[in-house]
Amino acid sequence: MVRQRSLPPAQAVPPRLSHSQEPGAHESPSTSTSSSTASTSWGENLYVGLSRETRMRIKAQARERPVPLFGWGYWWKTHYETLSVLVVLRAAVWGLALVLMHYCGMWAMEIPSGRIAWNPLIVVLSYVVAFTLCVIACIAMVHMEVHFGRQVAFSTIAATGVCSMHYTGMAAATFYTYSAPSPNAGYPPYLPLTIITVAVLVCVVSNVVLAHSAITARNRMAEMILTKRRLWRIMAEKDAAEQANELKQQFISVASHEIRTPLHTVNGYCDLLARTDLTEEQALYVTSIQQACHAINVIAGNVLDYSKLDRNNVELSARPVLMEPRKMVEDLARITEAKGVQPGQPGADVIISVAHDVPTAVYLDETYTFRVLMNLLSNAQKFCDEGYICVTVWMGTSEQLVASVADTGCGIPKNFRNALFEPFRQADTSMTRPRQGTGLGLSIVKHLVQRMSGTVEVDSVEGEGTTFTVKLPVTLPSYSPSHSKPPSPKPTGKRMRVVYRHKRTEELMMRLWAQFGYSMSSGSPLAPPAQLTEGVDAIWTDSESVIKSPSLRQLLTPAAPRVLPVYIVYLEREDLRALEPELSEARNVVLVKRPVILHHVVPWLEHPEEHMGAHLKPATSKVRFIVPPERAPSPMQLSPTPALPPSLLKEKYREREYGAGEAGPSRVRIEGLDVLLEPPKRRQRVLLVEDNLVNQRLGCRLLEKLGYEVTTADDGQQAVELLHSTTFQACLMDCQMPVLDGFSATRKIRELEKDGILSGHLPVVALTANVTSESEDECRSAGMDHFLPKPIKLVDLESILAKCARPLEEP
User: Exposure winner among 125, 288, 510, 741, fewest CB in 10 A?
Assistant: First the structure.
């Protein structure tokens, strides 16, 4: 018969398997192997922080084998192995304490007229008896707190040892006295048995108390070990999760870069194609491609932004800079222009309104604020098919900027508003939902607003529209407040009538223009022209309303009852074709392109005569007519009559441009006219550093389209070598290139400029598909002047080069 010895709870390393627990007895070998390996690995970690004695005990306990119930030989051998010097010293001290206690007690006895004679040999024998029994007791003490039999055995041995030592010690003493013997001399016969019984009971009670304390201590130790084990497991899982998250972030960054690189090519060639002569069908195709590129770019940007915000890094905290709120919303309107509008549909009017009390410049994180408003505006365009989308900016207090984005879309269901700012959540998740998206835009808005210590609120009525209000703390600049705000508009009392296809948009325009001091009224497109022009100074309408209203079309002709400025809001030039032939003859029309930026249109309302009929003015030509001095010596615009054949002018100009290269203007005699042709201007040279051949060709086309002379380099080393021999007005530098990357090349260029080897300061514009703020900071620290992320828009490239390109040197 075999029984398994149970281990205490504090045991850290699991015992070896007994024969009854070997793999195959109750479980498969694979299960046993895996559990044994896992336990051993955790057991090895448990050694950290334990004392040497505890580690030895754990090892000794792990080597224990099943003990036979009546295996005295094995029992004695096992306990004999536990005999050590420490056990012997402990027994020696314990026995000495018992002997001293006994003989000190006997020494304190008072014998009348007598004395005690001691036998030294028996005294030594009593100590030997006490020492031997103490050794046996120390051996039996091992793990006795979980074995009641060992407790009884130990108590019996201890009591027997005390009694043996006591009676042996009594035998060593001889009492002498001169007093007469007492008639009651001696002890009762039951006294020895009583002493032994009391001693055993005292030992048992003491052992029980000791066992309870030991068990409690071991349970605490076991709990601590289990806690450490869980902690180590959690730490390992945390490290694994962080590593996996880091790999995910790297993958998202690389994937975003790889998506933006071909998207840059598609978007660039679309911009070039859009500037060519296209049919209406071809223009429709190009517009659709541009909208798809914009959607891909927004999705990639949102995924990248959310992955960065999800990490909650300290470096992603807000960084206030001195920014201009009006310029920011103008850039926002330009970027979102015509996005999300289906061809052939008027779509929703995008209206931008900045209150007068907004300072010219404030300290605010421009990047985060721009992303917040762009996401809110894109979200509104997605869910608003008609009506208006109004972006309004005003000052809540002297230190709080408030921006709201209101739309007349479908609204937000009540049961979804609590989860509105959660990531990857959409109100309609069915396969037939009319609007697609990732569900990250509003979550990014909340994260960015919180990083700027602001708040975002939402007010929505299902079926009527939604308004998002963002409140951001700002700091005003330290210069004089009189220069921090634009000049206040002076109410002129002009009366204006709004005639719009959408009633709610009409009400909004009336309310907004009334804030600028205008007297507003509404009109019906079906009303007669006389009623529309009665008692007003101007008409505000849109191209769709003019197309459908004969009365409004009549206001564009000389047959109108009154000639008033008519402001027509339109989206594309194609929308105005339906207004012909009235529009080509109307000289009282002021065209306002969507999106409508109110603070830009205010000067047009105040001085309409400067803008009326601007659509009739021809473009400026490079050909100037030389007229007799008595008429006008100044240059004139080319007028329709006398008409000069464009092919002839182009051919003559091309001959001068590619001719011998005379410096001054030359006269050409054509049909009796003396025409002065301007010499070709020297074009600015731009260095394009790009290793990707496709992007290199695209960059050359874009720059040549803008009128620049382009020189290409395949890597940074070639760019540095070219700068030694050629002067450039600007440099477009890719960041990731072989041989020498863009950062190192820019640093080398700045060092050469500092040493005087290269003259002046070469403006360097960074071209990269990495759109993170860390990438922009790295470009700035390397010495680059501007940061232009891919995909690049032609208008952005033109704006940056016009701003930073240094002037041509005098020949």
Answer: 288
Rounded to whole angstroms, the Cα distance separating 625 from 68 reads 124
Please check whether residues 528 and 447 belong to one and the same domain: no
Q: Where are the alpha helices (DSSP H) in 384-538?
A: 441-451, 503-515, 529-533
Distance CA 426, CA 672 (A): 72
- Whole-number Å distance between alpha carbons of 170 and 537: 134
Euclidean distance between CA atoms 250 and 311, whole angstroms: 12
Interhelix angle 280-311/191-274, nearest 10 degrees: 160
Residue 362 lies in a domain: yes
Number of domains in the chain: 4
d(CA 419, CA 417): 5
The Cα–Cα gap between 512 and 530 comes to 26
DSSP calls for 301-367: HHHHHHHHHHHT-GGGS---EEE-HHHHHHHHHHHTTTTTPPTT---PEEEEEE-TTS-S-EEE-HH
Q: Does residue 506 share a domain with residue 603?
A: yes
Whether residues 499 and 599 fall in one domain: yes
Query: Angle, to 10 degrees, between the axis of helix 85-107 and the axis of helix 120-140?
Result: 130
Going by their DSSP bridges, the two strands 566-570 and 538-542 should be labelled as: parallel
The sign of the CA dihedral 365, 369, 371, 372 is: positive
Buried b (16+ CB within 10 A) or exposed e, 765-778: bbbbbbbbeebbeb
Looking at per-residue pLDDT, the higher value among 199 and 521 belongs to 521
Domain containing residue 739? 685-804
Q: What is the CATH number of the domain that holds 520?
A: 3.40.50.2300
Which residues, 6+ apart, have CB-to-CB distance to 682 below 8 Å? 808, 811
Q: Among residues 615, 640, 664, which one ends one of the domains?
A: 615
335 and 466 together in one domain: yes
Q: List the one residue out of 693, 789, 621 whose CA is nearest residue 256.
A: 789
Q: For 605-662, how does the pLDDT look when each residue is reduced to its tens digit (9 = 90+)?
A: 888 887 787 766 554 433 333 333 333 333 323 223 333 333 333 333 333 333 333 3
For 758-799, what is each residue's pLDDT tens digit? 888 999 999 887 777 778 888 989 999 988 888 888 888 888
The token pair at 674 is: 């003396």
Write the single-letter amino acid at 635.
P
Is 736 part of any domain?
Answer: yes
